[in-house]
Design a protein that fits this description.
With 309 residues, the chain is an alpha/beta fold. Helices cover 34% and strands 15% of the residues. The chain contains 10 helices and 8 strands. Strands 3-2-1-4-7-6-8-5 form an 8-stranded mixed β-sheet. Helix 2 links the parallel strand 2 and strand 3.
């Protein structure tokens, strides 16, 4: 039977959480043939062993080695190149797919080339962690105060037509933690709409330690600065995006953007985590400088060219 959907998971040292996600995927039902591709980005713990232990419970489980370059975007590209399924669906190793998630993503991809599901944070996070940063994509697509005035979504709950994905070059590993925003904008700039699918729910796990909150804020700030630079002259296609159905009207967020939302979070729900995330964002954004990689150039493997293990 031809595989129609591949669920691609990038992971590195995810032994503490990968089993939860794979357990959730093992319970998924989908009306067509599907498989799971795990792209291991250089794990030194038991991540690969845990993945292999699900070989009898997950259809067509494949593990590929993406350790030659660090980064989730690169790992997703390698995982995507290892399958020929016409539909690609991405999720993360530290989250948990809700019941019906995969079927909802597949159904959405029958109508649109590019879709994103809903993030839900209550199940996997305590109140301390929930106060550490704003969570977008719970009621709609994410918005940015800079760039081409187009929505975007997190790679932890994203689906795309395979041909479209490879036609734009996949994820750009040079962007860092906002490589999903960059991909969303590039796909929309060639004329395809990103459509929100609230029925496809992913329970997300936020950073819970102060160290990781600071590091994530700093990385987000630096990546935001890069995208501001890269898309400073970009604008949406003049003919409008391609979609089989109209979307809700959008309002561009205020110019203060992510930093402003983080500061609002501090004001409304002050916590050490929110402070660290906000300060980290500011430091990362302020210290970023343009490099040769800022313009972006993509080279990823052709489909089917990667060895599995």
């Amino acid at each position: 039977m031809t595989t129609m959907v591949s669920v691609v998971i990038a992971c590195r040292n995810a032994e503490a959480t990968l089993g939860v996600q794979l357990e959730a995927l093992a319970r998924q039902e989908c009306p067509v043939s599907w498989d799971v591709v795990i792209s291991d980005n250089g794990s030194t713990d038991s991540t690969v062993a845990i993945a292999r232990s699900y070989a009898d419970r997950l259809p067509g489980l494949t593990i590929v080695d993406s350790s030659d370059r660090a980064g989730a975007g690169y790992a997703r590209n390698i995982g995507s190149a290892a399958t020929r399924a016409p539909l690609l669906v991405f999720c993360d190793a530290d989250d948990e797919a809700a019941p019906g998630w995969l079927a909802a993503m597949y159904e959405a991809l029958q109508h649109d080339h590019f879709v994103a599901g809903k993030f839900e944070a209550q199940k996997l996070n305590d109140s301390h962690t929930l106060r550490s940063r704003p969570l977008q994509q719970s009621t709609g697509l994410q918005e940015s105060p800079f760039g081409p005035d187009l929505p975007h979504a997190g790679a932890g709950n994203l689906g795309v037509n395979r041909d479209l994905y490879f036609s734009v070059g996949g994820f750009d590993p040079s962007v860092g933690c906002l490589e999903d925003t960059d991909l969303c904008w590039r796909i929309q700039l060639v004329g395809y709409r990103l459509v929100f699918c609230p029925e496809a729910v992913m329970h997300v796990r936020l950073r819970s330690s102060w160290r990781t909150m600071w590091a994530q804020g700093r990385n987000y700030g630096a990546a935001a600065a890069l995208l501001e630079y890269r898309y400073r002259d970009a604008s949406p296609p003049p003919t409008g995006p391609i979609s089989s159905k109209p979307g809700p009207p959008r309002t561009r967020p205020p110019r203060f953007g992510l930093l402003g939302r983080a500061i609002s979070l501090l004001r409304d729900q002050p916590s050490p985590g929110a402070l660290l995330w906000t300060l980290g964002w500011h430091v990362g954004h302020r210290n970023w400088e343009p490099t040769a990689a800022s313009a972006g150039s993509l080279q990823i493997p052709s489909p089917g060219s990667r060895q599995t293990r």
